[in-house]
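The data are passed on as follows:
___
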Amino acid sequence: MGRSSSAVALLGTSGSERHVIGVAPCYAGFIGLADARQVEWIKPPGGAPDVAQLLATAKSLAGAPVDVVAIDMPMSTKMIGGYRIADRKLSSAFGAMQASTHTPSVDRPGCHGKRMTTEFTQAGFHLATVKNRAMPSLVEVYPLAGLVRLMSVSKRSAYKTAKTSRYWPDLSLPQGMSRLVDNWRGIEAALRLEIGNLGFELPESAPSLD
């Protein structure tokens, strides 16, 4: 997992309003926002996160320290060796909507997850649990379930480019990609109602898989 990267988004709040301050498809791209570097969306570089640098970039962009860090990854104060109670309950509630969780294991999130938790803890963040919600907080989230609720759909929207042929096996690849872009627009519309402009533009037509 250390060779890959993840998208990073920074949100600001003002009363009940939320807005996007910065977003990038990888750690390096987000850090580059502090120097006004152009974000590479087509083939973003991989690499492990530098937690201290990510937090410093977020503070620079927002003009204030980060209060909450939300991570789409299993996190716990104890060793994770398999399905947890939360995973079972979430999969039970969202399985019919094709939004079940992946099965955690010793290897996933493994060392990567432990390192992330440790570095954020060293930076002063507290992993949010039922018994501890001290600020600043580190929170485990599962965006796919949240998106199902946000869009009020009975089945999660297909959104992964690499799975286009599996989503619509009876369509040609260009037709499937066109439908995928339509789904992206639906997701964008739902998010825009909550957080305004996302900070990037969707493609006008289906992207190439070359």
